[in-house]
Amino acid sequence: MPNTTTPLKGRLNDAFGRLWKLHWVMAACFLIIYLIGMVMARLPREVFFRGSLYNVHKSFGVLVLGLLLLRIFTLLQVMAKNYLKRSRRFTPQWIKTFSLHLVIYLLMLVVPISGIFLSNTGGHEIPFFFVTLPNWFEENRSVGALAHNLHFWLSYTLLALVALHMIEQRQFLRRTWKQIFKENT
């Protein structure tokens, strides 16, 4: 059988492949964060594992921040290698897609920071799994409602934009999954 590489396989062997893998690892992390967040917010304070859920939620939030920094660095590598060499066509579709991605990246940065702000101003520490991180913000319970609303609404704005991103990318997703499953059979 001849050794032919598909376009997807070729793309996954370089910086684009790292970017693609980071994309899906972060997607899984965000899924975990949102599911835990929805459960923990509805639990009564008396439930014994509620604090553990908060700690896992916060740990994954910090993990996402680290992965995002790595992803931005990798994205800059991809852009330098592939996109700066050719002239960009500023079509309406390109502008729409670029704008959506820019806002998603911004919110992927701001949402975890707003969570850290919420915790720190409320007098709570930020665990990163088994390590407690130093506080980024001073305790100030008077901004608690603002911090909560900020984190809540930014989180759901990010979720809505991710849904829009998924709708926009459905053809690419379909083609990619078909290619992956075709290669594995």
From TrEMBL:
SUPFAM superfamilies: Transmembrane di-heme cytochromes (SSF81342)
Biological process terms in GO annotation: respiratory electron transport chain
Any one GO CC term of the record: plasma membrane
Subcellular location, record wording: Cell membrane
Topology with respect to the bilayer: Multi-pass membrane protein
Pfam family, one: Ni_hydr_CYTB
InterPro entries on file: Cyt_b561_bac/Ni-Hgenase (IPR011577), Cytochrome_b561_oxidase (IPR052168), Di-haem_cyt_TM (IPR016174)
Family, as annotated: Belongs to the cytochrome b561 family.
PANTHER family with a match to the protein in the record: CYTOCHROME B561, CYTOCHROME B561 HOMOLOG 2
Designated name of the protein: Cytochrome B
Taxonomic source organism: Brasilonema sennae CENA114
